[in-house]
Amino acid sequence: MSLIQNIQRRKVSVLEEFQGRATTAKQIKSFGCRVGIVLNPATPAEHIYPALEFVDVVLVMSVVPGFGGQSFMPEVLPKAREIKRRLARHQRLEMDGGLHAQTISQAADAGVDWFVVGSGIFGEKDRKAAIAELKDKIKR
Question: What topology does CATH give the domain 3-138?
Fold first, then answer.
């Protein structure tokens, strides 16, 4: 089954894995779907530039994907800033991995719009307080 056949069934694969990222993103958009692209920590930002105009969200991983509870990798922050400068107003920058009260403001300062927080909420005894603190840290 081709990627496009999968898209029609609403299964979307990570575009980072495909050589024709721009073409694939454009085809996904033609089906009326929102398009996201993920960058792992070791992947250079330039890797996705050809597809940027066709995506709605860029997710920068701030840990190596695989399991929760990993430490935030601050070395991804310059990549996030660089991508944010290239995004249009309707596009969003998202970050996932190692985000908690001590790291989320760094992501916000890098221009991140959306935050995926797991252990930074669910690893805390008072989840309501943890969420309030996270919200306070990302206010600009």
Answer: TIM Barrel (3.20.20)
